[in-house]
């Protein structure tokens, strides 16, 4: 059961409760029939790769330990290797390193380069690689005499003087200069990465993503360099090529990318991470896992529309609910669409309930979509929309009457007082009435339009006074 609660114009709260059957049936051979509880590594939910805000998790009403990112990536990479072995494809050490880096990758550093070179994606990728690979050598063999000497000296210092070695490494990281990748090297790297990413994107079937390490495996290069899995640009090319060979073999065995569970899982791990916890669970009775975290809503700049992805088939049944915890805000249109953008009619077959404040979906079909995107739009209640747009329209009418009177030369001080003063008071009440950011965002168009009308009205009044265009009242 997952609930999205809209709290403001920018932030929503997602609460998820996972109801788990007794695990004694599955773990009886490992722990024995007389054991009542056990510590397990429990996968909880797939989450988008981004920083967490207000994240809380409890298992059976007890706190749980969230496994850190690198350990989670190693587990995910092991899962991919196990799936590949079931399909008859083995991996080598270099491919294993790339798989772990894909799972561990976080898009925040890459997004900084994308923002810097917003309209030059090729330049952004090249600068990202050069900055991330700066500890490496540009020697084609990766085993030059100077490199071997530096490695030997660094190892001796680290062995004899650990503190000095740490200080030296810190100074070296600050003083290093970016590596320059040759044009032919970058072209070869990018071509191999894009070919592999295209197959993984087809396997997942969710469209392209500019921040997925599976869509662009070359993004994991800094992680490979930091771990010491690659020592040169040529090593990086061999790593990307080994991943491509692994993916192509799976495509050949499964007769297509979409038919390979290994490729779908790997592509999924490139965009999301599986949250895992160490926790004590009961073995002879059901229990509940609860999570809560804040998510950005991303309402449009003009229209109050937002999108939120949901898992629809990670349990025997899934409940998705939406509520608006803000006064003077109603739910408008809500659509559940697949990741391909098409409306998922099959997922709406089990049960659907909606009102102005709540929207709920229940689905348990075996052939339901794996994921869906909830598209929602909000609106102000009718009792608020009518006076808001009435004042908005009357304000512009006052502007029009003032312009006509000025053009005809019949505008008097009495007319100006009647048009300007009451209209300004009414518009001021409208502009300062709502205190919540969500209610303000919903009425942005009418508020902006009213503010512009008031500004135009007072500009006309100032023009009439300063230009002495007012006539004496009759």
Describe the structure.
Helix content is 48%, strand content 21%. An 8-stranded mixed sheet has the order 5-4-8-2-1-10-13-12, with no helix packed on it. The protein has a 3-stranded antiparallel sheet with strand order 3-7-6. Strands 9-14-11 form a 3-stranded antiparallel sheet, with no helix packed on it. With 474 residues, the protein is α+β, with helices and mostly antiparallel strands.
Beta-strand residue fraction: 15-25%
The parts where pLDDT drops under 50 for at least 5 residues are: 137-149, 164-176
Structural class based on helices, strands and sheet pairing: alpha+beta
Radius of gyration: 30 Å
Order of helices and strands: EEHEEEEHHHHHHHHHHEEEEEEEEHHHH
Number of helices: 15
* Percent of residues in helices: 40-55%
Overall body shape: globular
- Report the biggest beta sheet as strand number plus sense, adding barrel if it closes: 8 strands, mixed
